[in-house]
Amino acid sequence: MISVRDAYTSWATSYDHDRNSTRDLDQQVTIQLLGPQRAEQLLELGCGTGKNTQFLATIGTHVHALDLTEAMLARAQAKVSASNVTFALADLTQPWPCPNQTYDLIVANLVLEHIADLEFIFAEVRRCLKPGGRFFLCELHPAKQYQGLQAYFTRDEAEVRVPAYLHHLTDYLDAAATNALRLRQLREWWPTDDRACPPRLLSLLFEG
Ligand SMILES: C[S@@+](CC[C@H](N)C(=O)[O-])C[C@H]1O[C@@H](n2cnc3c(N)ncnc32)[C@H](O)[C@@H]1O
């Protein structure tokens, strides 16, 4: 099976241009929900090609953006010229290169499906978040995961499925509760108005 890093190294060349309604919906949701928020120090987990980083730079005084894949990060660095953004290569499954209690807002979009151990992620959020800080995530909805959907792209006419792990709603809520993060908002999102379909995205906002 292809690794997450190799998959995104290959996907980096077309990630921004492929037809991808999940990516586009995530961007709309993030702007809608975080638009009114402000943060002194903002940490972005799994920034990818910087799709959301450009927007986050408008609500954060300083944005620190992390990603596992050099090729994705290189695209982000080429795209995002805002002087208040710094990028770093980091594997979120290992202790993060961040001091304790630094960030007012930590943001994760479409990245946690690639990480098996949610508990570790929430423990690192807890460590890096200032008291009273917020953690926002927007991920593929578990209902879509139950149907077999996961991040994928096409290369040489073959579908490449990026390794993914199933996270139930209770997995997110339990990991948050264990780390003393309180749920402030839960929303479900559809790419069209067809609510007969399962929702595509789940967004959660927690407070430390
Ligand atoms: C679907 S992309 C999402 C990128 C961006 N957040 C967005 O919404 O467009 C997933 C990103 O997560 C990154 N990623 C996956 N596993 C990771 C890990 N263990 N540590 C850091 N980044 C990771 C990948 O390299 C990729 O750039």
Summarize the structure.
31% of the residues lie in helices and 30% in strands. The longest helix is centred in the N-terminal third of the chain and has 14 residues.
Overview of the molecule:
This protein has 208 residues and is of the alpha/beta class. It is built from seven helices and nine strands, in the order ααβαβαββαβαββαββ. The relative contact order is 0.17. The protein has a single domain (4-207), classed as 3-Layer(aba) Sandwich (Rossmann fold), CATH 3.40.50.150. Strand 6 and strand 7 form a beta hairpin. The protein has helices at 4-11, 21-34, 53-59, 70-79, 118-128, 142-146, 169-178, and strands at 39-45, 60-67, 85-89, 103-109, 129-140, 152-155, 158-161, 182-189, 201-207. The strands form two sheets. It has a seven-stranded mixed sheet with strand order 3-2-1-4-5-9-8, with helices on both faces. Helix 5 (118-128) crosses helix 7 (169-178). The structure holds S-adenosylmethionine. The site of S-adenosylmethionine (SAM) has 23 residues, from helix 1 and helix 2.
